[in-house]
Amino acid sequence: MDPSMVQQTFKAAPLTTEFFLQGSVMENSLETLVNRLKGLCDNADYQQESFQDHEMVFHIKNTSVPTPLVFRVRHSLVQTECWSLRYLGHAEVGDKNRPTLVRSYIDCPTSENVAQFIGELGFRMDHEFVVKGFYFHKGRMKITVSKFYKMNQPGNTTNDTIETVCPSYLVELSVVTSSGQEAVGDDMKNFAEQLKPLVTLEKTDHRKIQLAQT
Amino acid sequence: MQKEEKQLEHTLESLIQRVQDIKNSIANLLVKLENEYNILQWPSVLDNFALLSGQLNTLGKLLRNEKVPPLRNSILLPIALSGDRDPELEKVTERRVIAFNADVVPHYLRTKPEPEVEERLQPVLNRASSLTPEAAQKQINAMNKMTSNIVDIIKSHQETMEKEANQKSSLSQTSSQADTNTLLSAVLTGKGFKSSGMRRTDMAQQQSNMQAQQQAAQQKQQGNAHGKVQSSIKTNIKQGSSTHPYQRN
What does the record list as coiled-coil region(s) (chain B) (predicted)? Predict the structure, then answer.
């Protein structure tokens, strides 16, 4: 990673709050959704931008806290030199008036030996997966449409060893900004309205999903 | 006799009333078409037509009514023709007929269709009368067969159209809450990403955690023994839980 880019990222360090909404779209409606997003978002005249990433989720356990600390290492399978380390906080649902979920978000471009580095700090890899999809942006809003793949062989991201987890695509609308900028939520709400009924972007309570999990 | 006359009069009155209604509706529609043709909405035109059709229906019902004497049997006789202006007639006909003269009478009191219509009707009637009843029956049967065929075709089309409509409505589901939940739980907790091998190491870690907790509990117990008297029940619960390290998720 270019050191100047890293520096730039840290200059913008106060942007640590992510406002986001989530939903999913079935495979047969993907094309409709992509076309609609092309029309709604910036750079409509360009080909939509796609991505293929490999994400490794690292946990470190602390005896005093029951839930482990989670760091996510992600790198592009297309531009192999792009690595990043990401921390995502717990999503806050807040009250009814708040239009989006909010969580703390720290994303940092890194060199490709980051996994080794945090491994030596004591992190252990919990799971890994491949994610492929498209991303769009409108102003400061980012929309990702992504499909998740399970890796059958650890560390192997080739197409013949991965399989889909779910036929639907996850749709996320998010804005990363400094904390307290609640106004952005209204823009997001309006944008989400325009994707209805194709996709319902909602505040999904993560605690419920995690509870259903255990 | 008097009763019949009264009935006739009554019928005529209501007939006139109905016809008047229809005339007014037509006039309204014409006024609209002439004056508001640029802002006129199709639904309102349709409303007018619906009104007319309703009024024509009422007229038809009135004529079919049992109480109405057979009007066919009544005769209308022109008693006097005159070339002079008749103000009364002018008023009744809204200035359409000014005088009851030889020009208008044949038109207004006509009992036969117009000559052109009659001309066109005549060959048809001739053909119909020249047919033998058997041939006519044959033709009727053929006609019935054809219509029932057409009805069948229309019905099958209707079925396929309904099917398509149903399919479309089932296609209209573009997202599923269950899939959203599956995806989110995969991203948040790694459900579905972990292979069985990984789960085992996870279990092993959990087990070591349990042991650590157990030790901590024992230490705590010992520490407490120096201080306050520990409730034996509480200790028992802890020990009980620690004997099952393979708790399922």
Answer: 5-36
- Flag if A26 and B212 touch (Cβ within 8 Å): no
Residue from B192, B185, B189 nearest A204 by CA: B185
Residue A174's closest CA among A213, A150, A211, A146?
A146
- Give the end of a domain, one of B90, B113, B136: B113
Which of B189, B198, B249 to mutate to test binding with chain A, by most A CBs within 10 Å of its CB? B189
CA distances from A75 to A103, A119, A123, A133, A134 (A): 22, 16, 18, 14, 15
Strands A65-76 and A83-88 turn out to be antiparallel
Least confident of A15-19, A162-166, B89-93: B89-93
The enclosing domain of B64 has a CATH number of 1.20.58.1710
Q: Which of A7-16, A71-80, A201-210, B224-233 has the lowest mean pLDDT?
A: B224-233
Please state which CATH number belongs to domain A3-213: 2.40.320.10
Does the residue B41 lie in any domain?
yes
Identify whether the C-beta of residue A132 lies closer than 8 Å to the C-beta of residue A149.
Answer: yes
Q: Which domain holds residue B33?
A: 1-74
The C-alpha atoms of residue A206 and residue A212 are separated, in whole angstroms, by 10
Length of chain A in residues, anyone? 214
Least confident range of A143-147, B169-173, B238-242: B238-242
Let me know how long chain B is.
Answer: 249
Give me the torsion for CA of B72, B73, B79, B82, rounded to 10°: 10
Written as six digits, the tokens of B208 are 């070591």
Report the gap between the CA of A67 and the closest CA in chain B (Å).
Answer: 11
Structure tokens at B166: 């149903």
The domain total for chain B is: 2
- Please tell me if residue A30 touches chain B, with a CB cutoff of 8 Å: no
| pLDDT for the residue B18 | 92
Q: How many CB atoms lie within 10 A of CB B6?
A: 10
**B22-52 residue pLDDT tens:** 999 999 999 988 888 888 888 888 999 999 9
CA A145 to chain centre: 10
Interface test with B, best of A126, A199, A203 (most B CBs within 10 A): A126
Question: What dihedral do alpha carbons B187, B189, B195, B198 form, nearest 10°?
Answer: 140
Q: Which residues of A touch B172 (CB under 8 A)?
A: 197
Judge if ipTM > 0.85. no
A173 inside 8 A of chain B by CB: no
Same domain (yes/no): B1, B69: yes
